[in-house]
Amino acid sequence: MTEKLLACGFRNGQVQQLDLTRCNIMGILNVTPDSFSDGGLHHNTDAALFHAEKMILQGATLIDVGGESTRPGAAPVSLQEEMDRVVPVVEAIHKNLDTIISVDTSTAEVITQAAAVGAGLINDVRALQREGALLAAAATELPICLMHMQGQPDTMQQAPSYESVVQDIHHFLAERIEACARVGIGRHRLLLDPGFGFGKALAHNYQLLNQLESFHSLGLPLLVGISRKTMIGQVLDNCPADQRLVGSLAAAVIAAMKGCAILRVHDVAETTDAVKIVQATLAAAEVSRL
Ligand code: 9MG
User: Fold this and answer.
1) Taking 50 as the threshold, does the pLDDT of residue 37 lie above it?
2) How far, in Å, is the centroid of ligand 1 from the Cα of 116?
3) Which of 83, 118, 141, 148 is the most buried (most CB within 10 A)?
4) pTM summary value
């Protein structure tokens, strides 16, 4: 049974609660050089803060800060570089904006430091498999999103292969839930994500979207990231990322209708509107059953 409120750390002495009875919007804040490349670190932090504030005003209840590009083909980032990109931005958002900050990292030291300066959720595309990550995450007492990825970003799209993509990912996530339990991370702290686009061919991605509701059998809230991904472009005549808004909204609506608790998106205002329609539809079903 999924808890209805997720405790995501503290701000000004108050617990930050995330309402899991509705579909929340997580705004993407990439602090990689290709996203904010036009200045020094201070300027980058200001630019990141500005973008975070805009997404909050547009309806985001979480901001996902990431300093490692995990796009297909992306090269790894050094520990120091990731720290320098992520930690000042998390700190600045925590000091200035009333939101839940998710830190998109797989690195133990970044998990620890980001939590110390105000992160409220750990979003790990490697499901805490990197050395030290499980124990670092356990110590923060924060919630954690465990995502499935086959391979690593630099090579993961070369030859993705599954016996059954849905069953294989169920199995993987169940195993990671157990690994968390072994270090004292309770189920009440976990969210799950099948990892669209992470070591998956086109057919795998759409099988996962088609069967998304099957992941509810694991009994934990779902987080989904499909926004502007290749799986959208591939169905739409290979259009570039900046022309994938409508496709991304369609996928967001499907995921929200299937009960996902958090959508990780670029286009916050548009997705917020789309999700309002989903919420109204789901709420009407509840009333008509009375
Ligand atoms: C960081 N990141 C990029 N894509 C993602 C996705 O689909 N899910 C999660 N949890 N994180 C992602």
Assistant:
1) no
2) 22
3) 148
4) 0.95
